[in-house]
Amino acid sequence: MTVSTTLTAIPDVQRIRGLEMPWNRVFQSTPEPAGAARALWPWYPQEFLAECVETVPEAGDMLTIVLRRIDGAPLAFRSGQYLNIAFPVDGPDAEPVNRSYSISSAPTQPWTFAITVKREEGGRVSQWVHENVRPGMVLDMLGPVGAFHLPDMDRRARYLFLAAGAGVTPLMSMIRTIHSLPGRADVVMLYHGAEPGAFAFSRELEHLASVDSRIKVYYSLGDRSVTGTWQGMVGRLTAQMIDEVVPDANGRQVYACGPEGYLDVATDFLSKVGVDDTSIHMESFSGSRATRLEYRDEVAFAGEIAEEIAAAQDEAHEPEPVTAALDLYQIAAGTEAKADDGTAEHYETGDVLAAEPTASAETPAEPSSFETVGQGSLNMSFLRSGLNVRIDPGEEILAAAKQAGIRIGANCQEGMCGSCKIVKLSGDVDMHHQGGIRAREIEAGKFLPCCSTAQTDLVLDA
Ligand code: FES
């Protein structure tokens, strides 16, 4: 008997054109406003409780926390979005500390979801998370929010992902999502890290690149000296490096996440290799204008009929009332983003060092005795700072306060992360937040000065 040793060629994978998220069909099948709102509901920022079911240490001093909703519902989100989480850092009876973290898992596996937190030296919340969050712990969440996400439908689906340090988190969600879906795609990830052992998810990324011909991953060590047998690229992000990994950068949708300095140079170099502004989506810049407008319109539309839906559905997890259309998405590179050299080892989504505002004010003196600075028809009295700041209606409170030298911790500056939250003791503000504050906090007199303007004179605990 003759045994043939000729291998039969494996035919190329046949794929449908482009990439389509599973929920896109639901959107398309619901032309009526009420139907569309029902379909959109899961993406509407909601407040819910989730239980930690697993913690997984990652390279680069990062920790993945796998969660599931305690109401048993799946978490509907778009790949790249994030959650605002209340951490009981000072104990169960104290005011929790809110921080925003990108979801690192794929929405195509919605029954559990994950955030990945980098431990920051001196970072109050990230340290606490690493040391205290364990299976069984239940955390209060708000979200999902964010316009930095993959589109629901992309006929071309050609992407360049630029990640620096912990900025890989939302991009990891995107790459996992693309791998889990059928459809033509062409994804190149260029991932900068500080040292060979600091690339989180690298084993999984290598696996995905080896089994999915649509995915390619390149690593670069920034400008650090190379140790051991490093075989990846070396050097900061340059136009030449982008050109090397994606000679066809023009025409790709670029998603970049990392510290501000890294994103600044990326913007520069991307234009040099022919990538149009409208194709660039950045986590600290909230995505392209088109994406922002699309997202704002989408949620504004849902907001119009949210009450009708809420009345019609007596669900256990009601959507958080949204007082304004979601506008843009921004997780700033963070005040801990010390590295502006493109290596991003200190990048963290929202772990701010600034002091957390508290509800109790120790009145140092009468506002009438404070020094007054600035100009404007209204007066803001900052009790802790002992300063009166003049402001005009329509002028943003955080900006005016900062200009006057008042320290208020702020991260996103878009009403999303909650880090600038302070207490208003009297007066009215017009707030256009984007999920960074809970309804009960507003009732308790708190507000986000980064997205608020003064309507009357104000007395503030800051
Ligand atoms: S700075 Fe993020 S909500 Fe104000």
TrEMBL record:
Domain 2Fe-2S ferredoxin-type: 378-462
InterPro entries linked: 2Fe-2S_ferredoxin-like_sf, 2Fe-2S_ferredoxin-type, 2Fe2S_fd_BS, Beta-grasp_dom_sf, Cbr1-like_FAD-bd_dom, FAD-bd_FR_type, FNR_nucleotide-bd, MRET
PROSITE patterns assigned to the protein according to its UniProt record, in alphabetical order: 2FE2S_FER_1, 2FE2S_FER_2, FAD_FR
GO molecular function: 2 iron, 2 sulfur cluster binding; metal ion binding; oxidoreductase activity
Residue ranges of domain FAD-binding FR-type in the record: 45-151
Protein name listed in UniProt: Ferredoxin-NADP reductase
Highest taxon listed in the record's lineage: Bacteria
Keywords noted in UniProt: 2Fe-2S, FAD, Flavoprotein, Iron, Iron-sulfur, Metal-binding, Oxidoreductase
Cofactors: FAD
UniProt source species: Zhihengliuella halotolerans
UniProt keyword annotation of Metal-binding present: yes
One Pfam family named in its UniProt record: FAD_binding_6
